[in-house]
């Protein structure tokens, strides 16, 4: 045996040691070199059979390698199992909060509104945001050049080539009245939540786009009394507070009579206008292909933003569209 064999073991063992990443592997390493049948153990055992001169050089070299290996194994082991206060793993601690998305306040309010109407037997339907002037106006008894078109400041779209229809961004959800009636037979009761657009200056209560919820109930003998019952039940549940209602005559070309509904929450003590409504105009039934002598119906339209502002005391409609997380994260 020569001194070089100890040097060889030193080299290979040290190399191996740097690659060790866990305690199990480290134990295997220890057994391999320092165990009863270990490489270094064998060298140490063989010392006694060697001539004195060789023993003198090899002995101390082998012993010091053993000591070194023992020391290094110890160090490495403490690295693996070091339990300092800083990285102690407490499995009972609550996890890190992951930031996830959340619904927009208007989505929350729209969902609340939809759930109430659905529980009252209304079905929810959806309609296009880009409309033709036929559905947005003509079919609703507002012919071209009728002054009532001025009630809705309109975003007109460029006409496609060879198109007879004029396109616009719907100014209200009412165009879905005729679209729905064209393809369905009464009796039915629907709501149409959706985004609408108005070409007007913005301020605390006006936006160029906002959300409406349209309602339409058609059948034999549907009356204003039915309308009042539905709408008062809706608001009682929506605000979850006692309230008074006031019905004022008003004008919309697609209803007759037309009215506006005001609500006074007992907690607020002031009248707030919350919707336009009325009995479906015979002309609208005709546009849909219905016989107005056989049917009646009521229609209403209310602002989702406006109800959200009242319910959650939000002072400016523009806050809904400003993308400020300090507002929007308050809703779930
Ligand atoms: N569409 C009307 C508006 O936007 C509201 C309305 C709907 C009025 C249905 C009567 C009936 O102002």
CATH class of the largest domain: Alpha Beta
Q: Unreliable runs, pLDDT <50, ≥5 residues?
A: none
Largest sheet, strands/sense/barrel = 7 strands, mixed
Q: Would you identify the CATH H-level superfamily of the largest domain?
A: Bira Bifunctional Protein, Domain 2
Number of strands: 9
**How much is the radius of gyration in Å?**
41 Å
CATH architecture of the largest domain: 2-Layer Sandwich
Biggest sheet strand line-up: 1-4-5-9-8-7-6
> Which compounds are bound in this model?
phenylalanine
Strand percent estimate: 15-25%
The helix/strand class is: alpha+beta
Q: Tell me the series of helices and strands, N- to C-terminal.
A: HHHHHEEHEHEEHEEEHEHH
Q: What distance separates the N and C termini?
A: 79 Å
What is the total domain count?
2
Shape: rod-shaped
Helix coverage percent? 25-40%
Mean pLDDT figure: 92
Number of helices: 11
What fold name goes in the CATH topology slot of the largest domain?
BirA Bifunctional Protein, domain 2
SSE topology sketch:
Elements (H helix, E strand, L loop, with lengths): L2 H16 L4 H12 L4 H8 L5 H29 L24 H15 L3 E2 L5 E3 H4 L30 E3 L5 H9 L4 E10 L11 E11 L4 H16 L3 E8 L4 E11 L6 E9 L1 H6 L8 E8 H9 L12 H4 L4
Parallel strand pairs: 1-4
Antiparallel strand pairs: 2-3, 4-5, 5-9, 6-7, 7-8, 8-9
Helix pairs in contact: 1-4, 2-4, 5-10
This protein binds phenylalanine.
């Amino acid at each position: 045996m020569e001194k070089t064999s100890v040097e060889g073991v030193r080299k290979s063992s040290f190399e191996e040691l740097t690659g060790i990443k866990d305690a199990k592997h480290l134990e295997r390493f220890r057994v391999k070199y320092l165990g009863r049948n270990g490489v270094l153990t064998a060298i140490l055992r063989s010392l006694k059979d060697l001539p004195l001169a060789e023993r003198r050089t090899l002995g101390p070299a082998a012993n010091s390698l053993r000591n070194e290996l023992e020391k290094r194994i110890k160090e490495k082991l403490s690295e693996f199992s070091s339990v300092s206060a800083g990285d102690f793993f407490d499995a009972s601690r609550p996890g890190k909060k992951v930031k996830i998305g959340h619904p927009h306040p208007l989505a929350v309010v729209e969902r609340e509104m939809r759930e109430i109407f659905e529980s009252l037997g209304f079905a929810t339907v959806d309609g296009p945001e880009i409309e033709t002037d036929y559905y947005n106006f003509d079919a609703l008894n507002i012919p071209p050049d009728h002054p009532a078109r001025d009630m809705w400041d309109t975003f007109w779209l460029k006409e496609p080539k060879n198109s007879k229809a004029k396109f616009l961004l719907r100014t209200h959800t009412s165009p879905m009245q005729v679209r729905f009636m064209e393809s369905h037979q009464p009796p039915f009761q629907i709501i149409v939540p959706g985004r609408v657009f108005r070409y007007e200056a913005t301020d605390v209560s006006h936006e160029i786009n906002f959300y409406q919820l349209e309602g339409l109930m058609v059948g034999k003998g549907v009356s204003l009394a039915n309308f009042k019952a539905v709408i008062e039940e809706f608001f009682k549940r929506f605000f979850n507070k006692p309230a008074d209602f006031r019905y004022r005559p008003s004008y919309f070309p697609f209803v007759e009579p037309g009215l506006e509904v005001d609500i006074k929450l007992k907690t607020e003590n002031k009248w707030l206008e919350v919707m336009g409504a009325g009995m479906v105009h015979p002309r609208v039934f005709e546009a849909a292909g219905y016989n107005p002598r056989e049917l009646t119906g009521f229609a209403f339209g209310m602002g989702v933003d406006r109800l959200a502002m009242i319910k959650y005391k939000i002072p400016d409609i523009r806050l809904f569209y400003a993308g400020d997380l300090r507002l929007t994260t308050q809703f779930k």
